[in-house]
């Protein structure tokens, strides 16, 4: 009653119980959220990247097909592998994004894949800037989250020769020609321009052969291959 005397002990107990009730609710929500986050992280750490049910029904600008992903991976020498091979820590923002998507779609995502440089993966023996995807269908992937720094602008230059045999072949010809035709005319000791040109062309062919032999030897030594062959490989030497 409003005119009843105040018992401070009862007031303290009432306030304490109220605070404990709020704290219990908070801890319950927190524990549920942590349990959900841990479960998502477990799926990320164990995902084989194989398609299973249910398939996600998403149609928007964050969906990319396998061909598009393959071209980007080959162009910048990246890998597209199941998330279980990713050796770095997953940012909490990525887990929050997965929780958000699963809540909106009322489904659980089981199949995760990541685009990243090979050094970001724990690759196996056959003898860095990730993109996290969820597999929708056999050919389509939904971009969930991106973190890390952007690739350096010069990566497209250094990785272009390693895309496939054709880019490697033309790159060696270009490097050989650039090397030979950069030699000053005074070094060639030729009086005629025609004879100098033919000498440079002859040297270009032999430099090309030498460069090809050297690079093939280096590729065998360091167990490297073309991006077109290893963009989806879990092996570091394939």
Describe this structure in words.
This protein is α+β, with helices and mostly antiparallel strands. The chain is built from 8 helices and 5 strands; from the N terminus they run αβαβαβββααααα. The protein has a 5-stranded antiparallel sheet with strand order 1-5-4-3-2. α1 crosses α3 and α5 packs across α7. The longest helix has 39 residues. The N and C termini lie far apart (81 Å).
From the spread of the alpha carbons, the general shape counts as elongated
**Over the alpha carbons, how many angstroms does the gyration radius reach?**
30 Å
Separate helix tally: 8
Task: For the record, give the distance between the C-alpha atoms at the N and C termini, rounded to a whole number.
Answer: 81 Å
Unreliable spans are none
Strand content: 5-15%
Name the strands of the widest sheet in spatial order: 1-5-4-3-2
Summarize the amount of helix as a percent range.
Answer: 40-55%
- Quote the average pLDDT: 78
User: How does the major sheet shape up?
Assistant: 5 strands, antiparallel
Content-based structural category? alpha+beta
Q: Which series of helices and strands comes N to C?
A: HEHEHEEEHHHHH
Extended strand count: 5
Key structural traits:
238 residues, 5-stranded antiparallel beta sheet, 8 helices
Topology, pairings included?
Layout: H1 8-46, E1 63-65, H2 66-76, E2 79-82, H3 92-105, E3 112-116, E4 131-135, E5 140-146, H4 155-159, H5 165-181, H6 185-188, H7 193-222, H8 227-230
Antiparallel strand pairs: 1-5, 2-3, 3-4, 4-5
Helix pairs in contact: 1-3, 5-7
